[in-house]
Design goal:
The chain has 404 residues and is α/β, with parallel strands linked by helices. The protein has twelve helices and 14 strands. The chain has two domains: 242 residues, HUPs (Rossmann fold, 3-Layer(aba) Sandwich), CATH 3.40.50.620; 111 residues, Isoleucyl-tRNA Synthetase, Domain 1 (Orthogonal Bundle). The strands form four sheets. The protein has a five-stranded antiparallel sheet with strand order 5-6-7-9-8. Strands 4-3-10-11 form a four-stranded parallel sheet, with helices on both faces.
Length: 404
């Protein structure tokens, strides 16, 4: 039985889907910049989860949103002298290219926030009718968190109510007094041509409401899994839960999964520290895409991973060793009955992945299986069983071991 760590309950829980199709919502890229390898650690983890669920026989519908409007996107577009639409279209294209480079499966739906304004307005109106949202003096619409006593349950923070502090910038610094947050932002001159004329007035959506609208439209108001990086827990996912409760009366997701941050050479990745890398930065240096992916999978998603170039070179060597072992199996004509190796390896592979999708342990099983196969002199029948096992493992990990 697959067990996943639910951030909401802080424990591993048996995965029991709500229906015949597993609904998964994954927080996708904010397309105002290149997605970096820290972002892709989360995207790769999500990809393996989808692959493994399908491997286990589940039907899966995955929705990955494209955030193409938010405060930072507008600020970046102004700084670069581009229109929001021009900039987000460019970075969206780059993101999809990077997904293909890293052999990530496409989601069934890639909704854009800007294409869901009617749904956003509808949800906000529901919250206002139910008393969870109000119109501020500036014409913006805000969520009243005092009406939602479970706010903070996901991040395990206690709600400390005080004098309401209305902030235009929802990316403001955390405060001991939690602010109501904007659902709809009234128009300001700095917004330029980015606005919609709606029943809520002239303006644009807040960031958090976008995910509530896209997830409920494509997966319904209650689905199986909501995923993102740990930075999404507070305040984003807290606010998504609050919004959905305000509009629909329930938490949108049964399981909440969050991937830990990536360190680079033992430090937080940042441009100022000169350790900020995108997948195309690394491939431009001559590193193979699957080695990048291998390294990003080498630790369970809930543990912090330290990315180093030494580790990247080791990953390249490991993949080469595995591919060489597979290649030798094509013309195997030995005498050893090595078929049992494949059975035992597959059992161990599934066991570690069933334990909260431990990809680090899964790679160890793959490496040990490779070593055992190299030591053997398999006959033709055993060789076919071993190759089939490698294919099964690769269908989950997506390392492209049979692509060449």
């Amino acid at each position: 039985m697959l067990k996943l760590f639910n951030t909401l309950t802080r424990q591993k829980e048996e995965f029991l889907p709500l229906g015949e199709v597993v609904g998964i919502y994954t927080c996708g890229p904010s397309v105002y910049q290149y997605a970096h390898i820290g972002n892709f650690r989360t995207f790769i983890f999500e990809d393996v989860l989808v692959r493994y669920l399908r491997f286990k026989g589940y039907k899966v519908k995955r929705v990955m949103n494209i955030t193409d409007i938010e405060d930072k996107a507008l600020a970046t577009a102004r700084k670069e002298g581009k229109s929001l639409w021009e900039m987000t279209e460019y970075y969206s294209r780059i993101f999809f290219e990077d997904m293909e480079t890293l052999n990530l499966l496409p989601a069934e739906v890639f909704p854009k926030a800007t294409e869901h304004v009617p749904e956003i307005v509808d949800i906000i109106k529901k919250m206002m009718t139910r008393g969870f949202a109000y119109c501020g003096k500036d014409g913006s619409v805000y969520y009243d968190i005092s009406k939602f006593p479970d706010w903070g349950k996901l991040s395990h923070l206690k709600l400390k109510l005080g004098k309401k502090k209305i902030k235009r910038d929802e990316w403001g610094e955390e405060s001991s007094i939690i602010s109501d947050f904007a659902l709809w932002k009234s128009y300001e001159k700095e917004d330029g041509d980015v606005f919609w004329i709606t029943e809520l007035g002239k303006g644009r959506p807040g960031w958090h409401i976008e995910c509530s609208a896209m997830s409920s439209k494509h997966l319904g108001t209650r689905f199986d899994i909501h995923i993102g990086g740990v930075d999404n827990i507070f305040p984003h996912h807290e606010n998504v839960i609050a919004q959905n409760f305000g509009a629909f009366g329930e938490n949108p997701s049964k399981y909440w999964l969050h991937c830990r941050h990536l360190m680079v050479d033992g430090r937080k990745m940042s441009k100022s520290a000169s350790n900020y890398y995108t997948p195309r930065d690394l491939t431009g240096m001559g590193h193979k895409p699957m080695a990048i992916k291998y390294l990003l999978l080498s630790m369970n998603y809930r543990r912090r991973l330290n990315f180093t170039f030494e580790g990247l070179r080791e990953a390249e060597e490991k993949i080469e060793k595995i591919c060489n072992a597979i290649e030798r199996l094509e013309n195997a004509s030995g005498r050893d009955d090595a078929g049992k190796l494949a059975v035992k390896a597959m059992e161990r592979f599934e066991k570690v992945l069933d334990d909260n999708l431990n990809t680090g342990k899964a790679l160890e099983v793959l490496e040990e299986f490779t070593d055992d196969c190299v030591k053997q002199n398999p006959d033709k029948e055993s060789s076919e069983k071993i190759r089939e096992t490698f294919k099964k493992m690769d269908s989950v990990l997506g390392l492209g071991l049979f692509s060449s």
